[in-house]
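Worked Example 4.2. Consider the chain below.
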Amino acid sequence: MKLAVVGATGLVGSEILEVLEEHSFPFDELLLVASERSAGKKMTFKGVEYTVIGLKEAVDKKPDMAIFSAGGSTSLEWAPKFAEVGTIVIDNSSAWRMDPTKKLVVPEINGKSLRIDDRIIANPNCSTIQMVLPLSPLRQKYGIKRIVVSTYQSVTGTGKAAVDQMMAERNGDKAEMVYPYKIDLNVLPHIDVFQENGYTKEEMKMINETKKIFEDPSIQVTATTVRIPVMGGHSESVNVEFKTDFDLEEVKKILSTTPGVVLQDDPANNVYPMPINAHKKDEVFVGRLRRDESQPNTLNMWIVADNLRKGAATNAVQIASYLMEHSMA
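Applying the procedure from the previous section yields the following structure tokens:
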């Protein structure tokens, strides 16, 4: 197994390396890949020093598998070149997610849809992953009519420069502006670019990706995505209307036995999910479960996950592991 990590020097790339180590992912040869300006850099992984190589050199080495986290334009240009030499590409960008010829995969939900000839596999948006994972078993039990989601997203979702902006502002230093406004002590109802319909691209990702992952265009989804000055993970307030009525204790039982989901729902003792506790964790945390008293068959949920983990790196490594376990790689 010759494994390439493309975008190895970035925030998600470094997280992918951590997850690979923690999960003891098996490989014989590791290629750390980045842009030409980063080629030649030295990086250490599991006590071994590696030299970062460029994309062309990586393609020439014909890796068996490549986990991409290098941005959409890089993925659009280079993922097909890797695929042409037989590499399976697992891509973290939005480049391939809505391509009807590409699978959009959360392994616990639709890993079984993968086939041996899938050469480019899309990793969903971080906010989408953490929402659909706990909703999936509830959908199987009760059916879903409509989802209303508001997100509270970490600055780490924008990248290192955004973290630097927030920390500079917090320290009273001059900050290089990644966001159009100050982020520390502020809230920005603006993630990615605005579309003609008034929604942002991030909001439309959640809407469209949810329907694709569940293979159900009839599910009604509306989203408001918001950036807040925290690190450690994204939080989401989710209001889901089911097709049939539900028992709240049964919902808790279902979620407590769902792989990859941790139920933290004991408000009497102030137990509920928070990004400060989700940081560096692979699981999705769910709490504040309560019936929506304004309409029937509707549940309120609070969902938190480390966006660099299950929202990106962990999900990508889990896809790779699934392919290995099922002899597709």
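The radius of gyration is 20 Å. The chain is about 35% helix and 25% strand. Compare this with Example 4.1 before moving on.
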